Amino acid sequence: MTETTHRGCPVAHTDFTGTAPLYEHYKMLDNDREQARFLFNDTTDRGFFMLQRYDDVRDGFQQHDTWTTAVRSALRPNTASDPLLPQDLNGQEHVKLRRILNQFFAPAAVRRMEPMAQQRCIELIEELKPAGSCDFVAEFAIRYPTDMFLALLGLPVSDGEQFLEWSDEYFSALLAGDPAGATTAKASIMNYFDEAVNERRANPRDPKEDMVTRLVQARIDDVPLTQDEILTICLTLMLAGLDTTRSALGFIYTHLAQHDADRQAIIDDPTLIPKAVEEFLRLYPLVFQAGREVQEPQEFNGVELEKGDVVWLGIAQANRDPRKFDNPDEFDVNRPNVNQHIAFGGGPHRCLGMHLARLELKIVLEEWHKRIPEYRITPGTELRERGVQLSMAALPLEWEV
Amino acid sequence: MFISIDADKCMGHGRCYAVAPDLLSDDDEGFVAQRGQCWEIPEGLLGQAEEAADACPEGAIAVLETAPSNA
User: Fold this and answer.
1) pTM of this prediction?
2) Is pLDDT at B70 greater than 80 in this prediction?
3) Domains, chain B, ranges and CATH?
4) Which of B19, B31, B54, B58 has the highest number of chain A CBs within 10 A, making it the mutation to test binding with A?
C-alpha cells in the first residue's frame, strides 16, 4: 500500500515537471501549500520535504550551515556530474568566491552597464517594430539577455545568434535531467569560453571593470582559480541569466497584453516601472523552487529531518502566500511589502544576478512602451508553460504599424 | 529610535538602500555599507528606517525603541 504520511507529513504526488496550460503550475503550487503546512512529495527517486509558507521558506534559506546545495533543485536531485559555480560551494569557500564576483553584479557595477544595456535594447526593438508582429519569446526575450551576458563577459554581441543556439540546446537537456543529451552543444560553449578566457590571459583589461580579467587574476587563499573553474563560472552565469530573463519577460508581457489598465499605468508614469518589476517578480516567479540537502539530523518546525533528506524551498508558494501578501493573485503596483518577495531566493546563495535582471527588465519595459505602447497577443494563441523552471515556448504579439 | 542591521542575516539584496537612500548606502559588493551597525535614527528619517526594515527579504533590519544593551 502507498504510504499516506511520511515522518508525519502528508504524502503528495504532484508532478511539477510537465508542460501545461499557462499558470497551471501556480494553481498546483497554491493548492499544495493550502493542503498542509509541510508535504512529502514522492515523484522523484529521493522524494522531498516541501516548505511552502513564506516564513518557512525564508527560514529554510537561512539554514545554510546545515542545508547545502549538494542538491540544487528538489526536482533534479542528482546533478553531481554537472558542476556549477559558485552554487555548489558552501560555507566560507562559497563566501570567498562570491566576494570576487559580487563586485561585478552589485548595483554600482550594473549602473555602469546601463547606457550599453539601453542602447542594445533600443536596437532590438527598432529592428522588430516595422514588422508589426513577432514571437516575443524567441525574437526578443531571449536575444536581449544573451547579448547582455556576452557584454558582461566582454564578448561581441554579434556572437549572440550562434551562442543562443548552443545555450538553448544545452539548457533544455539539463532541465530535462539529461545533460548527456547535449554534449556537443556544451563542448561548443566551453570551447568558446576557453578561447575568450585565454584571450584575456594574453591581453588583460582593467580587473576592476572586466570580470574575466578579474577571474584570471583572482587568488583565493593565494591559489588562482583553475581554467576549469573559470569556465564553469561562465557556464553557470549563462545558465542562470538567460532562460530566467526570457521567462520573466514572457510572463510580464502576457500580463501587460491582457491588462490594459496596468499597461496604461506604466505608459502614463514610467517612474512606476521599478515597483512594477518587483511586483511582477513576486507574482510570476520562474524558479519556483530551490533544493537543499540536509547534512545532519535536525528538527525543523516539528518535522524530523535526517541526513541526506532533500528539502524543497517553495519560492513561488512563498511569494503567493496569502499569510504574507494580501490578495496574492492580484498585481498591485503599490503593494507595501513587495520588496520582501523571494523570487531571487535568500541566504548566501541568493541570485548573484538580481540587480542585472532588475536593470534589464526595467529598461525593456521603458524602451518598449515608448515605441510600441499598444500590442496584443495574436488571437487564437494557446499559451503554454514548461515545468521544472517555468518558461513559455512562444508568445506571439502583434501591433499596428 | 534606533536602527540595527544584522550582519549575519544581510545577504545583499539591496532593497533597503533603494527605499532609504538618505539613511543607507551600498558598498562595492552591493551590501548595505552599514551592515552590522546599530545607531540612532537621525531626525526626519524614521519613515525611511521603517521602510528599510519592511523591505528586507531576510528580516535583517530592526527599528528599536532603545539601543540594545550590548550595542
Assistant:
1) 0.96
2) no
3) 2-64 (3.30.70.20)
4) B58
